[in-house]
Amino acid sequence: MADFAEVIQPGSREEQLLAQIELTRLPRHIAVIMDGNGRWAKKRFLPRIAGHRAGVEAVRATVDTGARLGIEVLTLYAFSVENWKRPAYEIEALMTFLKEYLRKEINNLDQNNIRFQTIGRTNELDESVQFELRSAIHQTANNTGMILNVALNYGGRVELLDAVRSLVAEGKAPEEITEATISQRLYTKNLPDPDLMIRTSGEMRISNFLLWQLAYSEIYITDVLWPDFRRPHFFEAVIDYQKRERRYGGLVEPSQKLMVNAS
Question: Which parts of 27-113 are beta strand (E)?
Answer without folding.
Answer: 29-33, 73-80
